[in-house]
Amino acid sequence: MGSMRFSLLCFVTCFILFSLNFDAYEATQFVVGGKENLWRIPTSTNELNTWAQHERFKIGDSIVFKYDSKTDSVLRVEEGDYKKCIKSKPINEYNDGNTTIDLNKSGAFFFISGADGHCEKGEKLEIRVLSHKHSVPPPSLAPKSSPATLTPPAEPPKSGSVGSDLWISDVLIVAMAVGIAMV
């Protein structure tokens, strides 16, 4: 009888852990800057990157650029072009005013404004995408969409978090302790 209880508890524990693991990788849609129409010359030169540093971008997430398509655009560029605000050779160019981009690989993504003088005034953004292995569940989940897809050069994330791995380990330890106590 004790062996049957233990087997049932192991099954339930595994089911819960797999369910939690799948929820942890649900995609999030981020509006650049956290507000509507924020793809513009910022009030401080590093405003957009400060916002990005406080977010946890992971594979499967998407970012949305909202801007006036008559006066601005978004260019995805290489890191060197990002640093020097070079617009002449973008990887991708977007100008629809409501651009959604899938983040489908880990690594760095670099974006600058296509409008003259905007990048030099701080309208640029660097995003670091963590792999599933290094990401933690986001604080809130936004609706999914059908965005454009990006494929940046593979680059490992500079830092990571094991928060969700530790939490799952804690649940497993508690479940095993309860199972042993039931035997």
UniProtKB/TrEMBL annotation:
The cellular location(s) given in this protein's UniProt record come to: Cell membrane
Q: Could you list the residue ranges forming a coiled coil in this record?
A: none
Which domain of life does the protein's organism represent?
A: Eukaryota
User: Which Gene3D superfamilies does the protein's record reference?
Assistant: Cupredoxins - blue copper proteins (2.60.40.420)
**CDD domains from the UniProt entry:** OsENODL1_like
A Pfam short name: Cu_bind_like
Domain named Phytocyanin is located at 28-131
How does this protein sit in the membrane? Lipid-anchor; GPI-anchor
Which keywords does UniProt give here?
A: Cell membrane, Disulfide bond, Glycoprotein, GPI-anchor, Lipoprotein, Membrane, Signal
Signal sequence region: 1-27
Q: Chief location of this protein?
A: membrane
Record's PANTHER family?
A: BLUE COPPER PROTEIN (PTHR33021), EARLY NODULIN-LIKE PROTEIN 1 (PTHR33021:SF505)
UniProt similarity note = Belongs to the early nodulin-like (ENODL) family.
Report what the protein is called. Answer: Phytocyanin domain-containing protein
UniProt organism field: Ambrosia artemisiifolia (Common ragweed)
